[in-house]
TrEMBL record:
This is Trk system potassium uptake protein. It is a multi-pass membrane protein. Low-affinity potassium transport system. Interacts with Trk system potassium uptake protein TrkA. The chain crosses the membrane at residues 7-29, 41-59, 71-94, 133-154, 187-209, 241-261, 277-295, 329-349, 394-418, 463-484. Pfam families: TrkH. Its main location: membrane. It comes from Sulfuritortus calidifontis. InterPro entries: Cat_transpt, TrkH. K(+) binds at residues 112-113, 221-222, 319, 436. One of its GO terms (molecular function) is potassium:chloride symporter activity. Belongs to the TrkH potassium transport family. Keywords: Cell inner membrane, Cell membrane, Ion transport, Membrane, Metal-binding, Potassium, Potassium transport, Transmembrane, Transmembrane helix, Transport.
Length: 486
C-alpha cells in the first residue's frame, strides 16, 4: 500500500504547489488595490506552496511511474484536497465562516457549481470575489488538464490523469498525437474565449473587476457573482446577451472549438453530432418558456418574458447558474423544466455538468432501436452517432452511467429529506449540485443561498458536487473493494 501511495502523493505535492502559484493572481490584485484581504492571501499562498513542497520533498525519491489505476485515486485526492487549500483565504478573511461552509464554497467553485453560502458579496474585497471566480476558471476544463500541460515539464506523464479527468465520453479522443499538446490546445482555446468574454463585458459597461469575475464565471459555467443580486444587479439586456452567447459557447465541446481553430473552418461545428440537438433543445426551451410565462401573466409583454426566460433558461440549462430574476417565484413547471434541461443539455467536452448531450442522444437512439427490434426481431440494427457505428460496449456503459446517475439522485435526495429538508428543496438541491448548476428551488432558490442548510446537509451537497464533477464513476470506482486489491 505504501509503495502505491507514495508516487501518488509525490504528484499531489506538485499539484498543491502549482495550485498555490495560482493564488498569486488574487494576491497581486489585493496588493494593487490595497484591499483588506492582503494578509489572507499572503498566509494562504505561503501555507499552500509550503505544504505542496513539503509533501514533494518527503516523496521525491520515488521513481515509479503512475498507472491508469493510480490516475483515478490521484484525481479524487486532488479534487478533495485542493478545496481545503482554496478555502484558506476565505477562512482567514472571514473568521466567523465555518470550515464546512468554506469547504462547500470552494468545492462549489472548483466543480463550477456556483452554489454559495456567502451573502454580502457586494461588500467583499475585490480580490476575494476574484479568487472565488478564479476557481471556476481553473475547474472549467479541469485542474488536471492544466496540470497535464505543466507536469510533463517536471518529468511526470499526464495521460492517466487526463483520461480520468476529461469530461464526458471523449476520454479516448486524440486531437493531437501527444496528450500534453491536446491539453494545452484545449486550454488555449478556453483562455481565448475567456479573454473575449472579459473584453465584451468591459466594453458593455461593466467595471473591470465585475468583468473579470463574470468572464471567469460564464466561461467556466460556474455561477459565482460579485453581487448578491447575481446578474440581476446590472439590469442590462446588452450584458445579458453577451453572457448567454458565451455561455452557449462554453456549453459546446471544446474539442470542436479546438478543431475549428486549427482547421480555420466551421466544418467541425457542422459535423458535431451534439451541437444541433444542444442548440435546438436549449433555444427551443427559451421560446417555449417565454410563451408559458407570458400566458401565465408572469410578465405583461412577450419581449420581457422572452428576455428573462432566455437568460435564466440558458443559464440553468448550460449549468452556468447566474440569474437575473427569481425564477423560484415562477410557476413550478418553469423551474422544474430548467432543472430537467441542466441534467443533459451541455456537450461532452464542455465546461458544463450533467450527463451530457452525447449520452442523452445515445440513450434516445438505444430506446428507438429496442422499439424497432420488437417489430423486426431478426433485424441487425446498429446505433450510429455522427454516421459512426456505436458499439454495444459503449451503449452498455451509458446505460450503467444513467442507472448510477438516477440512483445517486434518489439516494442523496432521501438522505436530505431524512435530515429534515422538505422534498422539493432536497430534490432540487441534489439535482442542482450533482449537475454542477448552482441554484435550486424553494429554500435554495436563486434569491437565497445554501447557508440555510445544516452542516450535515452541506456536506451531502459537497459530496454531490464532487460526484457530478468527476462524472460518478471516477469517484465511485475508488470506493469499490476491487480497486484496492493488488
Amino acid at each position: 500500500m505504501q509503495d502505491r501511495l507514495i508516487p501518488i502523493l509525490k504528484v499531489l505535492g506538485m499539484v498543491i504547489a502549482l495550485f498555490g502559484l495560482t493564488m498569486l493572481f488574487p494576491l497581486v490584485i489585493s496588493e494593487a488595490m490595497a484591499d483588506a484581504a492582503r494578509h489572507a492571501h499572503d498566509e494562504a499562498v505561503l501555507a499552500t506552496i509550503g505544504s505542496g513542497v513539503f509533501l514533494w520533498l518527503l516523496t521525491r525519491h520515488n521513481k515509479r511511474e503512475l498507472r491508469s489505476r493510480d490516475g483515478f485515486l490521484l484525481v479524487v485526492l486532488i479534487w478533495t484536497v485542493l478545496p481545503i487549500f482554496a478555502a484558506l483565504p476565505l477562512l482567514i478573511y472571514l473568521p466567523d465562516l465555518s470550515f464546512t461552509d468554506a469547504y462547500f464554497e470552494t468545492m462549489s467553485g472548483l466543480t463550477t457549481t456556483g452554489a454559495t453560502v456567502l451573502s454580502g458579496l457586494d461588500n467583499l474585497p475585490a480580490s476575494i470575489n476574484i479568487w472565488r471566480a478564479q476557481l471556476h476558471l481553473l475547474g472549467g476544463l479541469g485542474v488536471i488538464v492544466l496540470v497535464v500541460a505543466v507536469l510533463p515539464l517536471l518529468g511526470v506523464g499526464g495521460r492517466q490523469m487526463y483520461k480520468a479527468e476529461t469530461p464526458g465520453p471523449m476520454k479516448d479522443t486524440k486531437l493531437t498525437p501527444r496528450m500534453e499538446e491536446t491539453a494545452k490546445g484545449l486550454w488555449v482555446v478556453y483562455l481565448f474565449f475567456t479573454l473575449l468574454c472579459f473584453i465584451a463585458f468591459w466594453l458593455g459597461g461593466m467595471g473591470w473587476v465585475d468583468a473579470v469575475v463574470h468572464a471567469f464565471s460564464v466561461m467556466g459555467l460556474g455561477g459565482f457573482s460579485s453581487h448578491d443580486a447575481s446578474f440581476g444587479h446590472f439590469n442590462s439586456p446588452l450584458l445579458e446577451g453577451i453572457a448567454v452567447v458565451f455561455a452557449l459557447i462554453a456549453g459546446m465541446n471544446f474539442a470542436t472549438h479546438f478543431l475549428a481553430f486549427r482547421q480555420r473552418s466551421f466544418h467541425p461545428y457542422r459535423v458535431d453530432p451534439e451541437l444541433r440537438w444542444y442548440l435546438f433543445i436549449v433555444l427551443g426551451s427559451c421560446l417555449g418558456l417565454a410563451l408559458f410565462l407570458w400566458y401565465q401573466d408572469v410578465y405583461v409583454d412577450f419581449l420581457t418574458a422572452l428576455r428573462y426566460a432566455s437568460f435564466n433558461t440558458i443559464s440553468v440549462a448550460t449549468t452556468m447558474g447566474l440569474a437575473n430574476a427569481d425564477f423560484n417565484a415562477w410557476p413550478y413547471f418553469a423551474g422544474l423544466w430548467m432543472l430537467f434541461l441542466c441534467s443533459f443539455s451541455t456537450s461532452a467536452g464542455s465546461t458544463g455538468g450533467g450527463i451530457k448531450m452525447m449520452r442523452a442522444i445515445l440513450l434516445y437512439k438505444q430506446v428507438y432501436r429496442e422499439l424497432v427490434h420488437l417489430l423486426h426481431p431478426n433485424a441487425n440494427l446498429l446505433t450510429r452517432l455522427g454516421g459512426v457505428p456505436v458499439t454495444n460496449k459503449i451503449t452498455y456503459a451509458v446505460l450503467a452511467y444513467l442507472f448510477i446517475y438516477i440512483a445517486s439522485i434518489v439516494v442523496l435526495s432521501f438522505v436530505l429529506i431524512a435530515s429534515g429538508l422538505d422534498v422539493f428543496t432536497a430534490f432540487s438541491a441534489v439535482v442542482a449540485t450533482i449537475n454542477n448548476t448552482g441554484p435550486g428551488l424553494n429554500q435554495v432558490g436563486p434569491a437565497t443561498t445554501y447557508a440555510v442548510l445544516t452542516d450535515f446537509q452541506t456536506w451531502v451537497c459537497s459530496f454531490s458536487m464532487l460526484l457530478g464533477r468527476l462524472e460518478l464513476f471516477t469517484l465511485l470506482v475508488v470506493l469499490t473493494p476491487a480497486f484496492w486489491r493488488k
